[in-house]
Amino acid sequence: MPSVSSAASASGRPVPSSLWRDGDFRRLWVGQTASQLGEHTGLVVLPLFAVLTLDADADQLGVLRAVGQAPIFLLSLFVGAWVDRWRTRTVMVLTDVGRTLALGAAALAALFGRLGLPALLLVAFVVGALSVFFDVAYQVSLVRLVKRDQLVRGNSALESSRSAAQIGGPALGGALVSLLSAPIAAASSALFFALSFLSIRRVRRVEPTPERLERPPRVWRRVHEGLRFVVGDTALRTVCLASAAFQFFFAAVMTVYLLFLPRELHLSGTAVGLALAATGPGALLGSVLAARLPNRFGYGPVLVAAAALGDGVLLCVPALHGSPAVTVPTLLAVNFVFGAGGQLVNVAVMAVRQTVTPDGLQGRAAATITFVGMGLSPLGSLLGGFLAEEWGLRASLLATAAGMMLSPAVMALSPLARLGLPSGRRTPLTAPGGPGPS
To answer: What pTM was computed for the model?
Structure first.
């Protein structure tokens, strides 16, 4: 695959030394930010529509969330193999169009009273499938768009947006459903995807054409190459296991959490949105720290500490009682810390992956980690719904939040805990006092 610099030269558009002076990076960042907001706003609009309008129970909510997450398990590995052979800009633009149409259709159906649970399931699956394509493509796009020594800063900006949207989007969705209506909230999500389309289609730099062989290997062979590379690398293998533990229990936590706040703590949709929105500022702080702490302390120690603090703070939530005047400020603090820790982990993990992965495997490595990490999310959502029905909301929230601590434990017990990353270098990572990844 041609290097970034050669691609820039071929297009006559050199890559600026500063990311924020680079108009193409700004367009990618705006598009990715809008896309993430649309994705995560939509993920809470549909469940809240089911709970508040269709009176869905915990099991039905778990099924709805599981259906939306199922494409991660079903498609991720294939998407990685395909994206390595396609121009990422084309992938992102087409998925934005598809998600705009899907949520727009949902909004119209809701306005005419035709949006029942089966239709919600279909929309959730379509949006989830297209989001898998977009999320793999934007990660690969950054590698093809910027210089190697700009990857950490680029990841910090993109992951800050993604982390903020991950909870800020649901906060916005909850507020829209509470203040306006489910159809308007769904239409707002569609508008975010339309904005992403308008921004990304304006990226001007000619993207390097992925190498095309006369007889390209079958997709299963390409998938196997990605799996073998990730499994054979100590750092990436540990990232997969830790991510799988986190995403499984986080999916269970969120299923219970979305029921716990309105039904156990008696918070309004607006209060729920306000509490969740604190993750956004936390993610911004985490983004700032992610550009500094790993270079000072090493990526491994930062990963373990950030994951332990960010995940562990959620154990405070099941203990909350009392009026919103007490619970909402506490939730704000909890979500702020969770956002900061999560952002540190996200940026560090992406920097590790992009540094150790060859250009031709970027899409497959990203997709493999997504597949292993988030493939269990549908089962986690189902577990959360089951536990909420069987154990009650408070006990099930405590159990699932405790399960999230398995993720930092996996990292702490592996060589990843001692990992260092020379900034801006495309060299194998080494752990001080121990062997590097195989």
So the answer is: 0.64
